[in-house]
Design goal:
It comes from Neorhizobium phenanthreniclasticum. InterPro entries: RepABC_RepC (IPR047611), RepC_C (IPR021760), RepC_N (IPR005090). The chain is mainly alpha-helical. It folds into 3 domains: 128 residues, Arc Repressor Mutant, subunit A (Orthogonal Bundle); 80 residues; 177 residues, no CATH class. It is built from 18 helices and 6 strands. The strands form 2 sheets. Strands 1, 2, 3 and 4 form a 4-stranded antiparallel beta sheet that branches. The chain has a two-stranded antiparallel ribbon with strand order 5-6. Strand 5 and strand 6 form a beta hairpin. Helix 15 runs parallel beside helix 17. The longest helix has 38 residues.
Length: 426
């Protein structure tokens, strides 16, 4: 005869620290401050917060309306004694579904349970027939959390209005931008195609507009308005005045701190070296393959300049120099004034450039957050200039060179800045 195996399955309702806290608050709540009508209206509007769905809201309203109005007075106890089968009949769901929804309402703190030994629900009455206690579904936690939940509903309504307003503005700006491409005259075909691709890239980044945040829609709208101004040849304007860097008295001021040296060349002819177009790789149009020659080739530079660049710390690049080298950042509506802002924008810039999260994480692990942000900005700028056809591969190649100490971001930044000045000068 074999040994009997004890049933190790736990008996009773599952108790979590959160459920225990809700039960404690329900027992210590004073009834009488909130009426049943107020709770019923609150239960119907909780769906806008995302806390519960429509079916759970329907069940909660049925529970509130089941308890008599006097149960919410000072001398009352709002406990519901109906079975799951009866509640299922009233709301048109199965008993199993009602049981799962009650567990969900317990988890989010909208009801608590006072269980009996056999899970039966019944009231306890005194000699005069008044209910003094009972085992069932306790609604006192709703009274305790009424002010908190009502504030959530008000906040959700305000956010919904902001999103609706931003959504209407975004859709109008997107329609205007697409019509402006068709109506634009006198611009080269390559420019029109570039702007068209940028608009489509922007819509892909926003995704489903009704599900986007108001901040995302607002930034996309600002960028679309700027693209329309460019198509209509309206003089360039500032995308976001609040994000524009203030006037600095010292050209070498970075992050509100004066940095003594911001150029990697300390000789008398350093300006010539910094502005030299040879500071970038000579085979720009083929740089999209992200091979070894896609970056700066130190062997083709003078020996003294190569040694100077190798010994130069990577963080010597000023943020203002990076913004001058990568004007695409401003075109997308971003003008960071601190390195911390640029590092926070790096995931968004990767999405614009088509760089995967894995490639960005590997770059951060190899270079650090600041240098990875500089590398992403360079990649985005070269992608926008059609010099790089595989942004993800380009960044991975930069990461590999950084791991071996052969990556010199300073020269890339100064070379891009010099070329931008030469192209924009008359």
């Amino acid at each position: 005869m074999g040994n009997a195996i004890d049933d190790l399955r736990p008996a009773g309702r599952r108790i979590t620290p959160l459920r225990a806290e809700f039960s404690r608050r329900a027992r210590s709540t004073e009834v009488g401050s909130v009426t049943r009508a107020q709770l019923s209206m609150l239960a119907q509007t909780l769906t806008c917060t995302g806390l519960i769905n429509g079916s759970e809201s329907h069940l909660l309203v049925a529970l509130i309306n089941t308890a008599p109005a006097e149960a919410f007075d000072k001398s009352g106890i709002p406990i519901v004694f109906k079975s799951n089968r009866q509640l299922a009949f009233e709301i048109g769901r199965s008993a199993g579904r009602v049981s799962r929804m009650l567990s969900r309402l317990f988890d989010v703190g909208l009801i608590t349970m006072q269980d009996s030994g056999n899970y039966k629900r019944y009231p306890v009455r005194n000699g005069e027939g008044e209910i003094t206690d009972g085992c069932g579904i306790d609604l006192r936690i709703l009274i305790a959390r009424y002010a908190e939940l009502d504030q959530w509903v008000k906040k959700a309504r305000v956010e919904k209005k902001a999103v609706d307003a931003a959504l209407r503005r975004y859709r109008g700006a997107l329609r205007t931008a697409r019509h402006a491409i068709v109506a634009a005259t006198g611009l080269p075909e390559m420019v029109l195609q570039t702007i068209g691709r940028r608009i489509e890239r922007l819509t892909k980044f926003v995704g489903l507009a009704p599900k986007a945040t108001s901040e995302t829609l607002r930034r996309a709208t600002v960028l679309l308005d700027w693209l329309v101004d460019r198509l209509m040849r309206i003089p360039r304007r500032v995308l976001d005045p609040a994000s524009e860097p203030g006037k600095m008295t010292c050209p070498n001021a970075v992050n509100d701190m004066h940095r003594q040296n911001t150029t990697p060349h300390q000789s008398a002819f350093s300006n010539e070296k910094r502005r030299s177009a040879s500071a970038e790789q000579p085979r720009l149009q083929d740089a999209g393959s992200a091979d070894e020659w896609a970056f700066e080739e130190s062997l083709k530079q003078p020996s003294d300049q190569v040694n100077d660049l190798r010994n130069q710390p990577q963080d010597a690049v000023a943020l203002r120099d990076l913004l001058a080298a990568a004007p695409t950042l401003r075109e997308f509506g971003y003008s960071p004034t601190r390195w911390a802002e640029l590092t926070r924008l790096t995931p968004i810039l990767c999405r614009f450039a088509g760089i995967s999260d894995d490639a960005r994480r590997r770059a951060v692990e190899s270079m650090g957050e600041r240098q990875a942000a500089v590398a992403v900005a360079i990649t985005l700028e070269k992608t926008n200039r059609h010099e790089v056809t595989s942004p993800g591969g380009y960044l991975r190649a930069m990461t590999a060179r950084a791991a071996t100490g052969r990556l010199h971001l300073a020269r890339s930044v100064f070379g891009l800045a010099a070329r931008h000045r030469s192209w924009s000068s008359p």
